[in-house]
Hints:
By secondary structure, the chain is of the alpha+beta class. It has helices spanning 2-9, 19-24, 27-51, 76-80, 139-164, 171-191, 201-220, 232-257, 264-268, 272-297, 301-332, 348-358, 363-396, 403-415, 419-434, 440-461; strands at residues 57-59, 68-71, 87-91, 94-95, 114-121, 124-131. The strands form 2 sheets. A 4-stranded antiparallel β-sheet has the order 4-3-5-6. Helix 3 (27-51) runs antiparallel to helix 5. The radius of gyration is 26 Å and the shape is globular. The relative contact order is 0.09.
Amino acid sequence: MRSTTRANNRQPAIRDPSAIVERLTQPALLLAVAVLSLIALLVFNAFFYLFRPYDGLGVYTENPLGEIYEVVPGSPGAQAGIHAGDLILAIDNLPLNPSISAPRYRAGIRPGDLVVYSLERDGETLEIPVRIGSYWNDLPLLASYLGIQLLSIGLWIIGMLLVIFTPPGDARAHLLGLGFLLAGATAAAGGASGWNSFWGANTIQKILLSLLAANLITAHLTFPELTFPKHRSRVIAAAWLVALLLTALVIGDDWLLARQGISLQTTYDLHLRQVVLVFFLVAWAASLALLARSRLAAASPEIRRQTGIILWGMLLGISPFFTLTLLPYLTLGEEYVSGAFSIPFLILLPLAYAYVIFQRQLLRIDLVINCLLVTFVVLLLILTLSILLFGAIALAFDLPRNLPLYGGLVAALIALPFPWLQARVQARVNHVLYGNHYDSLAIAANLSQRLAGALERKTLID
């Protein structure tokens, strides 16, 4: 029995027969991607603090480039008299050039500086000076930028851990590490993209999304075990062929054709950004389908357990947005927490992958992880039920819309000390994290025995 349990708990170091996977997991390539993605993180995240002054304007990224679709009430743009629908022609006499992706503001603008906008409104050209404000006056917007930056850094760190601290032959860990490195750079490029973007950030984001989509398919045909061995190499080759084709089209369209005043969008009505997003969403859906297949069809209970951890990590990463943003908006017509503040919780998904790979190395803190996870799940459950229950009462009797949130927090404080709810959640969490092989208490007991044995041996030696 013990030998069976130990075998089931062993993390398989999968050696992949695919030539593409072998090339993707070469140490030299992984190191190069790690260095380049770190440079991207530093450059793109620093761009926000140099070229993104707070004006309170929402501006279209593409055609019609420069048209303002939103003016935040009370923001510098609103105070200056800028309206939604105005078209920005120039900023400080620097005309907007739709053919390039570059910063629209000069570097180093600080709160209090004056910036002159040349606008077109109803066929009339206006010159409107705007006194730049501070992001501290619009915390949700600041949080959206900081959330993306923190997410990009977290993804990169997890990718590096998977690349550095896993055996050379573990293809699944290295593919996941490569994916998180690409995802970190993609998130950073997204934060520096838009109408006022870092040089080439819009193009780089589309390229990274295409490569990340192909890596998603490749990684999930390998994780948690090899899937569809007969057709696997062909599917991987097709995914990377599409990614490289999209990369070539994006580079040609953004950096060659656009400078000649033409594009695939205007000539053939081909929106490459939408094509890339569709490819990425298809790859994401395929990854989910592969995980679900492993969960339902795998013969090994260890594989089903590992897949369950990933699916739970995905669910918990999205849950704060659902509970605190989407659910109250659908039921009460307002958000308790801006969606920008829930972005960092998406880090729970890559953490779930890393936990699967490193679980046996995390024995010393596994009990802490277990307790934090149980508390997090209990709190989310109570808040979700509170919003549903108290939300209906608030709507029926026209009570304050914050009642469900406050009621949920009070209910959480009351319920958390009681063992019955925690026991039920604890059992479910143990089943997901450990399957039927062992639980958190067994881990703690085993660790205690090992430490006691080590102390005893040290005493005998002394």
